[in-house]
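Here is a complete protein record:
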Amino acid sequence: MRIASAFIPVFAFIATASQAQECEPASIENIGQCVVRRDFETYRPLVTAARIDSTQFDGEAAPVIDGDLSDAVWSQAAIITEFHQVEPVGGATPSQPTRAYIMYDSKNLYVGIYAFDSEPDQIRRAQMLRDPQLQDDDAVRVMIDSNGTFRDSYFFGINPNGARSDALTENGSSFRDEWNTIWRGKARVVEDGWIAEFAIPFQSFSFDASLDEWNLQIIRTIRRNNEEIRWSNINQSRGRINMTNPGRLAGIDGVSSGIGLEAQVFVTGAASHDWVLDDTDFELNPSGNIFYKITPSLTGSLTFNTDFSDTSLDARQVNTGRFSLFFPETRDFFLQDSAVFEFGGRVFNDAKNGLPFFSRNIGIVNGEPVDIIAGAKLSGKAGPANVGLISARTGSADGQGIDGQYLSSARLSVPVLAESKAGIVFTNGDPSGATDNTVAGADFQYQRSNTFGEGTLYADVAYVKSFTDDVGDDMVGSEIAYRSQKWNGTMRLRHIGENYAPQLGFSNRTGIRRYNINFWRTYRPENSFIRFAETGAWTNIITDLGDRKIDHFYGAWAGGANNAGDELWLNYEHGFVDIEAPFSIAGIVPVPVGQYRWNQYNVRIASTNARAVGVEFEINKGGIYGGDLLQLSGGINLRPNKHFEFSAEHEYLEFDLPLGDIGIHISSINSTIAFTPDMTIKTEIQYDNISEAFTFFSRFSWEPAPEREIFLSFGHTAIIDRVQFPQDFTSQGSSLALRLGHTFRM
């Protein structure tokens, strides 16, 4: 179900199939709005990378990565000129031609992109920070599936300013841009377009040396047209990071990861001041990570006295419901090769309840961070199997009287059939030390592309059993889904036993069965200002283990986006809940036992952030727990130039219930100053009037070279009394940290 969804009935009848004129395949000499005569269901282009070595060009083998393709060595590269539109017209020739160059030497893969543009002054390039929102600028992306998964990839992207993005993609749907690795990329605008150069070390990603071909995708966006151009996987129903039907990269042979050893060494000097106790502490903490490639596709990792000083703040949330909240993993050590630990596929895409392993539980006990004294990890591919093993020793949680623990998890999966995989998972340990906990499970993730035309059929199933102090219980989940350019649907079932307790996973509601069904129709009007429209309906039924209904929700939505990317969504929801145990909204307003029914209506409007000013507004109004709910949220994003970005968000929730009322405010402000693509200052400010906690966190980061970093952070926390503000501002603590880091590769 789309959370911010809506209906606009007029969208339902204005859409027809695109009927552009047919033409020959796109190339630099042949561009225009015509559809290529291709069978894109089976289309899988192939490129054979050119090998370069130091005997060529008077000893100058490697190109200089400076956004200039004039180096003589680029003349030896394999060239790709055939690209196709996915947006706005599927299969059409692009409005501007693109030429890609592929070559490699023993250490690096080199990719050059010449993005021709007849109007270079219209090239959108508003960002310069690391990991920018590439969808808001002109950009090129390179995705490498070097293990032949057809699901996961290493993602590298860049915009015309040279702002680099790297990420891990998982299952064609999860995008983890918290992951960073060593690589070089530069870009520049020229008189007939713009140029990007990539140098990606083979030591920066895992690869299966036994494969003759890797999966490869190259994507370009032309932002003023909201146009997406791909080399392969020409299907509008498949997302940008989907690797179902990628192109093929052949010819990679005889490459080296050195001896496979990488050491990340950090020294952090930190000072903190407790304003309540008027006490100041100083610390000097060395830390490090060691990675060793046992094989090119299998990496062993060690971490010591792990430092997370560069980790961003979690998004501020206030719990207004009955169940605990989920916060995603953001720490580098746990994100490295995290795709191999993925379990259950689409079963856990939207609802994490029942997840057997969640790495965030290592190093955090009951919301309090604890030291990770040491950790070891084995991740990658051993033969046909994807392997993930992790074990860590945590420090004690002194404030809770909890001793340190040994925590471990293992994940093994193997590819089966053409696009599917099956595997097992195992965990042991309880971060709190309160129980003796073990979890074991198995899953099967089925995928079949080109079903009923160009659609994709998914069928995932997962079974997990937990053992807590000799008490066992299980979780069973399954999902069947179909995705196509027109018709889409999902059916998800889940059973969670009363005593199911994955202490290294995530479970916030047990003793239930859950049934989810949704379906929707997508429309793409021809020659219209509307890019796409959607109408659909959904239902969500929750019962106890005796099949007695305790919650039931259903609704409908419709909405869509225009060609620029502005969106409008409407949503209707009818809810029924049977509250069996009283709870409190935000811990303040009580909700007694009883049965409650309501109707809610939602409107969301968002303008594209590709403009200098982007805004978003959402209103949700209706009944809740025998009373009324009003939810207002809005945000603004400003990018006046490539060096500065500012965003602010505010959410207001008003509950007017029979036993009381409350207004909840949650605010955040984020700003970025980018001096260069490798030197930035990021600042985050957060506040909510329930915890009354004010947080300020600013980080200066500089990479003089991809192997070196300088990181300076300042944080301040305070309590702001929601009644007396702004008179009552009580500082709690301040912190200042300087971290120097260097990565050694051998």
About this structure: The mean pLDDT is 88.
